[in-house]
Amino acid sequence: MGHRALVAYERTDGQYTLHYSHWGAANLKLKHRISAETPFGGDDTDSKWAKQLLAELADGLEVDAVDGYLAGEDRPSTVVEPKPCATGLTLDEIVADHLDYLHHEAFFVVSTTFEVAAYRTLWFGLQYDSETVEQGETVGNGALATVRWYDGEPVGDGHLQGQFAALKDVVGDMLDKGVFTQSTARQYLTQKLGEWVGERQELRIPGGESPSKTASVDRL
Predict the structure, then answer these.
(1) CA 166, CA 60: separation in Å to the nearest integer?
(2) Looking at CB atoms within 10 Å, which of 83, 95, 115, 159 has the fewest?
(3) pLDDT digits (tens, 9 = 90+) for 113-165
């Protein structure tokens, strides 16, 4: 099954290349495995091919050219797939059109100086929590939240996920009882997330919904 994640690497023009990682979401540890020495998260610190490839991608190398670039290379395995899913994207496009908030468990943004921001995905779909919702969109339908770290560990991660799962269960019941419409249910999910994340962490929501007055929100 894996712990799937998407990783966005910043290019020199401010856009991003988007890569897939099958295990990168596990404990959000990929945040500490991506560095200038190991740009795709592998154990090989002498990965000249990886550094060169990422430099080429940062300068605008297209997806179609990557296969030829990697042909014949004897490469150790990496946590992040070296070949991108897409290139030349904005963060707005990634979180709205590429990120699957149900199947991708995490999202990482890597700057040109290898500062890595780790986000946990929180899916807004209520089809498993409500008898009246038949199907919920998965791509672009959710929120991204950073978590509290201590001594290299994401200590706030499990708590946030548990809180959100319990919240969705309650909201699903309220939807079935007619207390919420699907629109007000989404608004309530957004509001509560804003209260929980607060000012110390970051909350990203596609489309620019404002969760609360106190949350630190990056509207994409």
Answers:
(1) 43
(2) 115
(3) 999 999 999 999 999 999 999 888 999 999 999 988 888 889 888 888 999 99
Residue type (1 letter), 38: T
- Whether the Cβ atoms of residue 87 and residue 17 lie closer than 8 Å to each other: yes
If you count them, how many residues does the chain have?
Answer: 220
Nearest Cα neighbor of 124 from 160, 97, 100, 151 is: 100
Phi and psi at residue 44, in whole multiples of 5°? -80, 110
How much is the pTM? 0.90
| Cβ contact 137:115 at 8 Å | no
The tokens describing 209, both together, are 């919904």
Residue 77 has a CB neighbour count (10 Å cut-off) of 9
Q: Are 155 and 149 in contact (CB under 8 A)?
A: yes
